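fyi for ur records
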Amino acid sequence: MAYDVIVVGIGGMGSAAAWHLARRGVKVLGLERFDIPHSMGSSHGISRIIRMPYYEDPAYVPLLRRAYELWGEIEAATGEELLVITGSIDASPEDDALFQGALNSARLHDLPHEVLTGDQINARYPGYRLPSSHRAVFQERGGLIASERAIVAHVRAAQAHGAEIHAREAVLGWEAKPNGDGVVVTTDRGRYEAARLVLTAGAWIGDLEPSLQAVAVPERQVLAWLQPAKPELFALDRFPVFNLQVDEGRYYGFPIYEVPGFKFGRYHHRGETSRADDVRREPDAEDERLLRDFSQRYFPDGSGPTMALRSCMFTNTPDEHFILDRHPDHEQVVLVSPCSGHGYKFCSVIGEIVADLASGDGTTRHDIGFLRLARTALAAPHA
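which gave:
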């Protein structure tokens, strides 16, 4: 075989996978349809949240612990600061699944944390204006990942270990050889063979693996950066990242970092789903109105002039958990993510897991049973 492993899609997940494979001595080819990094998928927009008391499922917490370690390793390998600690706030009405789930994860995994009222959050962090009835889990290790710089760091580190990375080369298709004996990948520039294949194509994974089209649905997102009237309240050391459930929906946000504005977005923004190539790219007035209404109510000192509006994509599964498994019919093919809008923080550890699945005997020490394809939500997505 010309290569040991071909990785298709060199975004957050694919770049990390390429590094973990290459540093194990695996001969890697990475193929990316766009630039490295680029603004067409799910990993751009400067930053992504990382938080420990995971309300979505406490089973993510062991993966997060390893993710923190591996973010440190790629920082050490490249000299880049990629993980910025701000603290994190998970807040909602007390009986809501967000607060209760975050509290359960924190207690189950003995995470240091505080339980605060909305008023206590507002007093400690004056950029916030949460309802007094809200309850919050504050966790000191939350923060942000410099998402685009992390992709570049992983690619540089992979190249330093001999990985071959091609940008602006679109994959047209792939086929598995009989009896698990490798794969052939065809692009708009050539044809490549490898022993194993990793598909980390984000919102395009359903185009490359049709069996996932019904359970990997792209969705348009829009992020806003607004200039704060009091920027000191939104500085890295005074404004924890947040995950917030309010009457208007579930929102997430960041302190000022690189772009001169308070950054935030709404999960499942306007519910617009389509094929990845058909997603509307340009933000419009309704996008801005929806986001600004939220900030004016809950972060009024952060709601000044618009600094930026940028679109990106989620790729949602029916249960909003990831897909991380070997192909059910071709064990030499690994299917990675769609992460349903909350996966970037795990890139470092998913890269390690992918390297496990795509090399050696294909096993991993990490518990990923709840992310495998056989779970009920994916086996019968329309039931």
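The first strand starts at residue 3 and ends at 8. thats all i got for now
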